[in-house]
Design a protein that fits this description.
This protein is of the alpha/beta class and 334 residues long. The protein contains 14 helices and twelve strands. It has helices spanning 5-12, 16-23, 31-44, 50-57, 73-88, 102-110, 112-115, 129-136, 160-173, 191-207, 223-236, 248-260, 278-282, 294-309, and strands spanning 62-67, 92-97, 119-122, 141-144, 154-156, 179-182, 216-217, 242-245, 270-272, 289-291, 318-319, 326-328.
């Protein structure tokens, strides 16, 4: 026999109305009471009828997350943090992969996936601001990432420029002067790659080190992209004594290629990345990297989206983690 709300109420020692308030995320409930109800729900395996509740309230208590590819470690770990933040606020998360394709991004903004959710967290890579605003309509939307910035949209951003400058400054302080950058192209100015490249350039200038475009190598932000870019650098004969991958996957690919080629890390070449994914700690040698404040990014994004779902505040908020970033110095670039 299916578990009912009455069963949950009896198990938690509360009224049926209190169970309903908890399920519907009513804010004026004592935390201890709310926890008793949630524990009873978990213990009994109670499942709400989302369809019926949606018809009554006009809300699903579901938020959507659209990102490029869950096989990218940073996206997977960010998605996990977003799910935790949403769960704590009474929401669940539906995840959609866009594959960096404009058609898939547009479908997520206006198709069936969108209709299943009360609001959307979106990491756009293919659509511009105008496309997003047109496709999204009136449903709440918060952007993550730096590929699109527009005052008509809510956004949660990373301090990319400052964090990349901190990594570069650390490498320079270790005596490195020929620091290769993987994942950007000379002249990039927008998005995460452009912002991180500008931070790199600023740190070089502050240290009086000349910028060399030959050390900037464009590639996909994946391990194989980092390995291929490093191989091209080694085969070209361009001298370098450090590698800065604009994400950890690139840096890990570079680390692998350097070791395969017989280079000692960090003695011959120091290696640093960006994102502080779990894998960075367990690489050999472990990877120096930047922690961008992933948990707080998730918290702020979910909080902002729920505010919009509840009709609070005005659209156009730009937020960043309070802690901003932290440099994790490890064996690959001590």
């Amino acid at each position: 026999m299916a578990v009912t709300m009455n069963d949950v109420a009896r198990a938690a020692g509360v009224s049926l109305k209190t169970v309903s308030n908890v399920i519907n995320n009513y804010e004026f409930i004592r935390p201890t009471t709310k926890q008793r109800v949630l524990d009873a729900i978990d213990e009994l395996g109670y499942e709400t009828n989302l369809t019926a509740r949606s018809l009554r309230s006009g809300k699903t208590s579901m938020i959507g997350l659209v990102l490029a590819d869950l096989s990218v470690p940073y996206y997977a770990e960010l998605a996990s943090e977003i799910m935790k933040a949403a769960w704590e606020r009474g929401y669940r998360v539906l995840v959609e992969q866009s594959g960096n394709e404009a058609g898939h991004e547009r479908a997520a903004l206006q198709g069936q996936f969108r209709s299943l959710t009360d609001g959307l967290l979106f990491i756009p890579l293919a659509l511009d601001a105008g496309d997003i605003i047109t496709a999204a309509g009136n449903k709440p939307l918060v952007l993550l990432g730096e590929f699109v910035e527009d005052p008509r949209l809510d956004m949660v951003l990373i301090k990319n420029h400052e964090a990349a400058a901190a990594v570069t400054t650390h490498l320079l302080a270790g005596g490195r002067r020929r620091i290769a950058v993987l994942g950007a192209v000379d002249g990039d100015t927008t998005g995460s790659n452009g912002l991180r490249l500008s931070g790199y350039k600023a740190a070089l200038a502050a240290a009086g080190v000349e910028y060399d475009p030959a050390l900037v190598v464009g590639c996909d932000w994946r391990r194989d992209g980092g390995a291929d870019a490093t191989a091209r650098l080694l085969d070209s004969g361009v001298a370098f004594d450090a590698v800065f991958g604009l994400n950890d996957a690139l840096a890990l690919g570079a680390l692998h290629e350097l070791l395969v080629r017989g280079k000692k890390v960090p003695e011959d070449v120091a290696v640093a990345g960006f994102d502080d994914i779990d894998e960075a700690r367990f690489a050999s040698p472990s990877l120096t990297t930047v922690a961008p404040g992933r948990a707080e990014i998730a918290e702020r994004a979910v909080e902002l989206l729920i505010e919009r779902i509840e009709g609070k505040g005005s659209i156009g908020s730009v937020q960043q983690p309070r802690a901003a970033y932290a440099l994790r110095v490890r064996q690959s670039a001590p």
